[in-house]
Structures are given as structure tokens and as C-alpha cells.
Design goal:
Structural class: alpha+beta
Number of strands: 7
Number of domains: 1
Strand order of the largest sheet: 1-2-3-4
Largest sheet: 4 strands, mixed
Shape: globular
Order of helices and strands: EEEHHEEEEH
Length: 162
């Protein structure tokens, strides 16, 4: 799967384009929908962690996974993908685990049309990265949550004592 996310100032929307094995699709993400997608992506990222991990350790692990993804994924600037169909204006997100332990994400418009995506962890983190980098270019001043990276030399404790 190829992902492309661009900001269209004329539409004041983000355009998410996907090239799948047998088809392509594109989706408009509004200013209102972008933080919702952001929350869903991080929720799915957290779901792949062990349930017994504490809050601070969870943030630390998510930060490490995101850093790891940044080092292993190559992002390139390319001309806008031509998908052939007009973009779908996303009004609903459906998400959860898929049958193989990955992440299911559905992007749906007001008429119920859309696309169901299956993302593995690297694809999920790639989409998080694209959204993070592209949202900054919008000027929307979104307050998007990010996991806190640990201080240098500090590791999260499973519990605190005093």
C-alpha cells in the first residue's frame, strides 16, 4: 500500500490518497475529522501494546515505536496521486482490530460509501507520521496529543514508591 497525504489550501482540507494492490482511493479529511483520525490511530497503536503496561511506560513505548518507524520508513515528495475517482469526504471513522491482529480502519462518507483498510503496525505508524507532518502545514493550530519521550537516561518505572 502506498499512502500520500497533502494539504489542499483551496479546499482547506487534507487529501489522503491510497494506492492499494488492485485499486486506488482518495479521501478528504476536514479540520474536524483530522483530530478524530489522529486519536483513532494512536488508540490503535496503543492497542498493540501489552495491556499490563502502565501509563508512563505506554507513552514511552509508543514514542519508541514511532521513532523506530521514522528510522525505517522512507518518505518521499511526489506529485499528487491520480486515483481516477473523486475523493470521498470522510464523515465517519470505524476502527478496531482486524482478524489477523492488525488494524482495521474504515473511512466513510455521509452516504455510507467508503473504503475498509487493513493496516499493519508499520503502515499505521507511517500514517501517523504523514498526518503529523502534514497537519503542521495546514495552519489549523491543532492540539494533537503525542506520546512523551523519556528524558535521556531515564526509564519508566512500573510503579512508584516513596
Amino acid at each position: 500500500m502506498q499512502l500520500q497525504l497533502t494539504y489542499d489550501p483551496g479546499e482547506d482540507r487534507l487529501l489522503l490518497s491510497l494506492m492499494l494492490a488492485e485499486r486506488s482511493a482518495s479521501f478528504w479529511l476536514t479540520r474536524r475529522m483530522t483530530p478524530l483520525l489522529w486519536q483513532v490511530l494512536w488508540q490503535r497503536a496503543g492497542a498493540s501494546l501489552d495491556g499490563g503496561v502502565s501509563g508512563s511506560a505506554r507513552e514511552w513505548l509508543l514514542s519508541l515505536k514511532q521513532d523506530e518507524a521514522r528510522q525505517t520508513q522512507a518518505l518521499t515528495r511526489a506529485p499528487r496521486m491520480a486515483t481516477g475517482l473523486p475523493p470521498i469526504l470522510v464523515s465517519t471513522l470505524k476502527y478496531g482490530p482486524d482478524e489477523s491482529g492488525g488494524h482495521a480502519l474504515e473511512l466513510i462518507d455521509a452516504q455510507g460509501r467508503g473504503e475498509a483498510l487493513k493496516l499493519d503496525d508499520p503502515s499505521l505508524y507511517a500514517l501517523i507520521r504523514l498526518l503529523d507532518e502534514t497537519a503542521e502545514a495546514t495552519g489549523w493550530a491543532l492540539d494533537l496529543w503525542r506520546p512523551k519521550a523519556p528524558e535521556a537516561g531515564a526509564l519508566p518505572a512500573p510503579s512508584a514508591f516513596h
